[in-house]
Amino acid sequence: MRAASFLLVEEAFDNEHDSFVQLLCGTPKAARLAAFAARWSKDQRPWARQQLLRYLEQPLAPPGHKGLVKRLFKLAERAQDDVVMAGFLVAFDRLVRRVLKVRKRYDWNSRTVWNEETLSAPHDTLVASREAQAPPTGRQFSYRSRHYLRRRAWRYFRRLGFQRPDAYPAAIAEALRRYRDEDLRRGENLLDSWGLMQACFHTHEALEFGVSYPRLKPGRTLAELEAAPRFAETWQSTASYQVLWKLVLEASAHLVRNWAEQLLRRLHAEALQQVSGERLTACLAHADRSVQELGAALLTEVEDVRGITSADWLAMLRCESPAALERVAQAMQRRLDPLALPRQTCLELACARSSPVARLGLAFVKQHAQAEAGAGDWLAGLAAARCSSLAGELTTWALETLPYDSETALRFFDSPLPTTRTAALTWLEGCPAARDDPLLWARLFESPYGEVQLQLVDALERRQALPGGEASAWTRLWRSVLLGVHRGGRTKLKALRQISAALRASPERA
User: Fold this and answer.
1) 196 vs 340: CA distance, rounded Å
2) CB-count burial class (<10 Å; 0-12, 13-18, 19+) for 227
3) 446 burial class (0-12, 13-18, 19+ CB within 10 angstroms)?
4) DSSP state at residue 342
5) Residue 230 has pLDDT above 60, yes or no
6) How far apart are CA 27 and CA 295, in angstroms?
7) Which of helix, strand or coil describes residue 479?
8) Does residue 129 surpass a pLDDT of 50?
9) SS3 label, residue 285
10) What value, to the nearest 5°, has the Cα angle with vertex 22 and ends 18 and 23?
11) For the residues of 89-145, what is the DSSP string, one character each?
12) What one-character DSSP code corresponds to residue 287?
């Protein structure tokens, strides 16, 4: 890419243009960039600060930017700018990315060969990232410099923990929420993140910290890691409780969200009993299923959750985790008055695809029907059920509860869900009004569904005649059954016997 003119960079900076960071990264003029650092750091515009944090999200690989990065870092450190220093802590952690390599080892004494896994980094290069598109051979800092910068960035927060312990949780949380899942994709990436490991797992017994990297002790694994933060006492305050909740809901990395959840459980169990409905709703609307399950678990554990409206309950039912959804449905059935919801809403819940939601909706629909002292026509909407595991029970209850009407019953026979149609066919045999209704049977002869056609042939085998069946209708039915290639082998024999009997009775139909 052609180098950008520094005049364009300054013009974009002055006019708050969105292309500023892109133009800046394309400028290799080290002297001009280093001098620009003081102007940038002193700029009081919120936009300028936002662009600085955006710049730190880019790979620190552009040629000529070494002086700019160092000066911005020192100026932020001198100004005690916690937010910008958090951005530098994460950016410097991303500079070190070792690669797992397998080497063969040979023992001359025993004459045995084995594979040994080691972590190594390309010599003075930045490891390529699919997301960031970093150049695989771009040299910005030597590894010695990278290790120093990581330690110095963490030193700022370590001093903060000693000198201003009340400000430490919020400051380090600003850094923790910036780590991304792609930064911690592999176990070696986690061990390379010096600031993250120091802040979150410094006192864990499975780790030992060297000069540049934390190491696992012999026989220990990363799967054992649990929250063991530096300055653990600072995370016990009420302010820290709010900070941890913010990490659970806003952190970009799953590992950080899980770490914050562990601390909430361990240090703030009593405060969690007073959790607000707003936070539980936010948990269940989160994209991470583990956060959804945390919200569902708290919803079950907390005896009195206040501030949850009917709209909040319905929003909770949109979470994607099956385990969380089951808990939400149980809590909703226990705590919410079904009559507080419109019956149409209950009907929509009963027709949901998810089994826990559909079962909850069916329970609510039954209570609405009981409160109305009769079954209204609105119950026919249950024919639109989409949950296969519950559709049979739902169909049977609806048809037995509703007063018989052929048009209403046909809605269940015409359902696209096989479970619904099968349950309706079973109900048909036990309902005298439906069994002798020629209009219903005439419409069933027109059904395109295979199980309905097979049931009609079976019904004729048990009965001398069926109401509503004309000769042409029987002909179409037998033809459809005989031509079916996927099912109905035994029923086809019954159809052949019925064709023979019809020919004997009416030879002119041959």
Assistant:
1) 48
2) buried
3) exposed
4) -
5) yes
6) 47
7) helix
8) no
9) coil
10) 95
11) HHHHHHH---EEEEEEEEETTTTEEEEEEEEE--TT-PPP-TTTT--TT--SS-HHH
12) S
Residues 268-306 pLDDT 10s = 999 999 898 889 989 998 999 999 999 999 998 887 777
The first and second tokens of residue 409, run together, are: 């019953």
The answer to whether the beta carbons of residues 413 and 442 sit under 8 Å apart is no
Count the neighbouring beta carbons within 10 Å of the beta carbon of residue 366: 16
| Helices first, then strands: H and E counts in the chain | 27, 4
pLDDT for the residue numbered 485 = 47
Q: What single string gives the DSSP state of each residue in 188-201? A: HHHHH-HHHHHHHH
For strand 214-216 and strand 207-209, is the pairing parallel, antiparallel, or unpaired?
antiparallel
Q: Angle at Cα 66 formed by Cα 61 and Cα 70, nearest 5°?
A: 120
Q: What is the mean pLDDT of the chain?
A: 85
Q: Read off the pLDDT band of 486 (50, 70, 90).
A: low
pLDDT at 135: 44
**Tens digits of residue pLDDT in 372-403:** 866 678 888 999 999 999 999 999 999 998 88
What is the three-class DSSP state of 42? Answer: helix
Q: b/e map of 83-99 (b: 16 or more CB within 10 Å)?
A: ebbbbbbbbbbbbbbbe
The tokens for 221 are 């694994």
Half-sphere exposure of 501 toward its Cβ, with a 13 Å CA cutoff?
13
Residue 470 · residue 501 · CB < 8 Å: no
Residue 338 has pLDDT above 70, yes or no: yes
Nearest to 466 by CA among 491, 447, 438, 493: 438
Question: Which of 424, 437, 495 has its CA nearest to residue 468?
Answer: 437
**If pLDDT is split at 50, 70 and 90, which confidence band does 132 have?**
very low
Tell me, what amino acid is at 337?
Answer: D
pTM: 0.78
Start-to-end CA span in the chain (Å): 84
Backbone phi and psi for residue 446, each to the nearest 5 degrees, phi listed first? -90, 0
The residue to which tokens 């026989």 are assigned: 219
Tell me the one-letter amino acid at 112: T
Angstrom distance (rounded) from CA 437 to CA 467: 7
Q: Which two tokens stand for residue 148?
A: 């120093």
Compute the distance between CA of residue 158 and CA of residue 164 in angstroms, rounded to an integer: 10
Taking alpha carbons only, the member of 254, 83, 76, 260 closest to residue 179 is 254
| Host H or E run for residue 53 | helix 46-57
Q: Could you tell me where the DSSP H helices lie in 164-287?
A: 168-176, 187-192, 194-201, 238-250, 254-267, 269-272, 277-284
In one letter, which amino acid is 286? H
Helix axes 30-42, 6-14, angle to 10 degrees: 10
Residue 5, pLDDT score: 81
Structure tokens at 204: 């864990």
Separation between Cα atoms, residue 205 and residue 217, nearest integer Å: 8
